Amino acid sequence: MQNSIDATNLPNVYATYGVILSTVSGFSITLMGFIVDTFGVKTVYIVCAIFFSLSACLSFFLTNRIGIKKEG
């Protein structure tokens, strides 16, 4: 991002990025609180572990499929 944006606009871009990140974080914390109250902590941890594992498997599969090579 630093290389693709003009240096004069970079502070505004980072400020906007921070606002968006804070808003999304606040929303996700509120949503997770509601889900925990509804389904319980244990269920949420299990579902999150499943999604995390699926995400890891998908990233390994896509990395191999599109042929991303390691640098070095």
What does this structure look like?
The protein is mainly alpha-helical. The chain has one domain (10-66). Helix content is 78%, strand content 0%. The protein has 2 helices and no strands. It has helices at residues 10-39, 41-66. α1 crosses α2 (41-66). The chain crosses the membrane at residues 12-36, 42-62. Keywords: Membrane, Transmembrane, Transmembrane helix. InterPro entries: MFS_trans_sf.
Key attributes of the depicted protein:
72 residues; 2 helices; mainly alpha; 78% helix; single chain
- Output the radius of gyration: 18 Å
Shape: flat
Helix content: over 70%
Count of structural domains: 1
> How much beta, percentage-wise?
under 5%
Strand tally is 0
The H-and-E topology, N to C, reads as HH
Question: Total helix count?
Answer: 2
Overall structural class, as computed from helix and strand content, comes to mainly alpha
N- to C-terminal separation? 23 Å
Largest beta-sheet characterization = none
Mean pLDDT: 88
Low-confidence stretches: none
Question: Could you provide a short overview of the structure?
Answer:
With about 70 residues, the chain is mainly alpha-helical. The chain is about 80% helix and about 0% strand.
Secondary-structure map:
Layout: H1 10-39, H2 41-66
